[in-house]
Amino acid sequence: MKSLVLTFHVYLAFARKSFQRRMQYRVANLAGLTTNFFFLLVHVFVYTAFYAARTDPQPLNLNEIITYFVLCQVFFMLMPFWGARSEVTSAIKDGSVALQLTKPVDFHAYWLADECGRACYYLLMRGLPTFLISILFFEVAMPKQPTALITFIISMTLATFMSAAITITIFSSAFWTLDTTGISGLAYSIITLFSGMLVPIALWPEWLAHIGTWLPFEGLIDIPFSIYLGKITGMEVWIAIGKQMMWTLFFIGVGRAFLSRGFSRLVIQGG
């Protein structure tokens, strides 16, 4: 039990260091905050015009759509690849991964802790200000039930862990490719579409939405936001959270397998 607590404190320290490292870039964070709010305005204007031109009822009303995209910008930097330089890829490519391997820690858990520290930084320093500013300008809907807020927090936490696991898995492919630009670009395009970040899945054609439900990426955006808006209720909430947990464990397992296989074939130039 004592060793388990000590291990937790070690990885918590890694997450804290990751958070502190990003605190140095405050001007960049301010610029990013401005960019987030700009794109939020673009989405609001586009969907306001869309709803003004539609007469038939939609699965989400305009206020819910605005809230949905406010949440998108709040949690934008917590998604795969956003705000995360390919430190895993760089370490593998330049050989510095050999030095990291000398640390008496689990390498996958170390990178996962680093990603969690990054997520906490962007949530507090960019997500929270974006939400507070949005409340001043728009009618942002709040969860109608306390249980909806609690389950949303659980769902969003799982989404963050899944995002970190996906990021590490994709970047670990550098053991074979040395450059993950292509595969991460392709993965980003697929994830952005099927997570619901561009268009809420509720507005998709039925056949495309059916495909999306069989993929893991709705657990990054659409599931937690639908819980927040009260579109998923009752036992469906826990089924959706269970799906998120399953996919999170899947990507953690795949990432660990990639690292294990990659380390077995790792060759550092010069020795």
Describe the secondary structure blueprint for this structure.
Blueprint: H1 2-22, H2 26-53, H3 62-74, H4 87-94, H5 97-100, H6 107-137, H7 146-171, H8 174-177, H9 181-194, H10 206-213, H11 222-228, H12 235-264
Helix pairs in contact: 1-6, 2-3, 2-6, 3-6, 6-7, 7-11, 7-12
Detailed description of the structure:
The protein has 271 residues and is mostly helical. The protein has one domain (2-264). Helix content is 72%, strand content 0%. It is built from twelve helices and no strands. It has helices at 2-22, 26-53, 62-74, 87-94, 97-100, 107-137, 146-171, 174-177, 181-194, 206-213, 222-228, 235-264. α2 packs antiparallel against α3 (62-74), α2 (26-53) packs across α6 (107-137) and α7 (146-171) runs parallel beside α12. The relative contact order is 0.13. The mean pLDDT is 83.
Distinct helical segment count: 12
Number of DSSP-assigned strands: 0
Note the gap between the termini: 39 Å
Low-confidence stretches: none
Helix and strand pattern = HHHHHHHHHHHH
Radius of gyration: 20 Å
Q: Sheet bearing the most strands, described? A: none
Helix content: over 70%
Q: Outline, from the CA principal axes? A: globular
Number of domains: 1
* Average pLDDT: 83
- Roughly what fraction of the amino acids lie in strands? under 5%
The structure class reads: mainly alpha
Please summarize what this structure is.
The protein has 271 residues and is an all-alpha fold.
Descriptive keywords:
271 residues, mainly alpha, 12 helices, 72% helix, globular
